[in-house]
Design brief:
By secondary structure, the protein is an alpha/beta fold. It has a single domain (2-173), classed as Rossmann fold (3-Layer(aba) Sandwich), CATH 3.40.50. Helices cover 44% and strands 13% of the residues. The protein is built from eight helices and six strands. The chain has helices spanning 11-23, 34-44, 48-54, 73-76, 89-96, 103-114, 129-140, 159-173, and strands spanning 2-5, 29-32, 59-62, 82-87, 118-122, 144-145. Strands 3-2-1-4-5-6 form a six-stranded parallel β-sheet, with helices on both faces. Helix 1 crosses helix 8 (159-173) and helix 5 (89-96) packs across helix 7. It starts with a strand and ends in a 14-residue tail after the last helix. The structure holds flavin mononucleotide. Residues 6-9, 33, 35-36, 38-39, 42, 88-91, 123-124 line the site of flavin mononucleotide (FMN).
């Protein structure tokens, strides 16, 4: 699985996904944009060193490493999916318009062309028409737009419940079994 963390608010959605997928024994390739690191530090106090200390098994790839194997369809086709969480409007715009300025943009482009499942956990509010048009473009191209907007029907009691709802929906989109949130009418 490839997990990309960009500079939208909600770094915890990337962190929690990493925690859950590592605990499920997924082999994780992780790319964090430079803005992603700024937000990880600001919102969670997480630096590269701390992240690697907590998840030593993760393959952390620099965003500038455009010749990395995951930039090639011949390799990405072997992956279960690509998740961008959180996904900024800037990364969404790059992907929607086929412009690659870092490895995250390229991995998303390759996922779309190879039909590797791509889930984009977008975060912004409100949306401009530009954002909405970019969502439409990537959705037409096959990406799953999964807004970081938790539901309240399962009566969340904590911040963790809210985060796990969104993380659970990401796993649902990739058909990965979990019990991170209570489904409708589940006892
Ligand atoms: C604390 C903080 C919060 C941000 N929150 C958002 C956000 O929720 N959504 C968004 O699209 N951009 C947000 N930004 C702006 C992005 O980080 C900025 O557009 C950046 O260029 C995105 O680059 P990236 O997509 O390569 O990570 C935020 C920036 C900071 C510093």
């Amino acid at each position: 699985m490839v997990l990309c963390i960009t500079g939208a608010s909600g770094a915890i959605y990337g962190y929690r996904l990493l925690q859950v997928l590592v605990s499920m024994d997924f082999q994780m390739d992780v790319v964090v944009s430079s803005s992603g690191w700024i937000v990880l530090k600001h919102e969670m106090g997480l630096t590269k060193e701390k992240l690697l200390k907590e998840f030593p098994q993760v393959n952390l790839i620099p965003e500038k490493d455009i010749s990395n194997s995951i930039a090639s369809g011949s390799r990405l086709i072997q992956y279960n999916g690509v998740i961008v969480s959180p996904c900024s409007m800037s990364t969404l715009a790059h992907v929607a318009n086929g412009i690659n300025q870092n490895l995250i943009h390229r991995v998303c482009e390759v996922a779309l062309k190879e039909r590797v499942p791509l889930v984009m956990v977008i975060r912004e509010t409100p949306y401009s028409l530009v954002h909405i048009e970019n969502m439409l473009k990537v959705a037409h191209a096959g990406a799953i737009i999964l807004p970081a907007s938790p539901g309240f029907y399962n009566k969340p009691k904590s911040l963790q419940d809210l985060v796990d709802f969104v993380v659970g929906k990401v796993l649902d989109a990739l058909r990965i079994e979990h019990n991170l949130y209570k489904r409708w009418k589940e006892d």
